[in-house]
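Bump. Still looking for SB domain-containing protein structure tokens.
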Amino acid sequence: MHGELASIRQTQQELRSGQQTLRNMLERLDSEQSELEAKTTTYQDKRDELKRILDVVPADDDLQIDNAIDTVAPLHRQLLNSYVEDCAIEDSIYFLGQGLKKGTIGLDVYLKCIRKLSRQQFIQRATMQKCRQKAGLSV
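Sorry for the wait, here they are.
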């Protein structure tokens, strides 16, 4: 009899512990559901805003991506162009290194190209630095 009572109490304790665990899980689910509903509302608002903007903007099939981003001053345009050139040179140097690793290009070709690209990169970086100084931006 005493063993049965102990077993029942143990079971009762386990059930209470499980009940608390379930309550915690339900609270967490409610919290996550509220968060999801808020994010869904934000998403729908942003989607509607984009639709309104797209309805206002005229459909221009001849829009060139290079002309989509423009700067307010020629100095800033020069800075942007130098930055883009620098990034392209950086990519070229990376892929030349990959080609050298794979044996696609020889060492002599690699060194010639790297030397040429490094000179161009130096000019672009010097131009960027000069533009930043003239524009009053941090160097």
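The first helix runs from residue 2 to 56.

Edit: fixed formatting.
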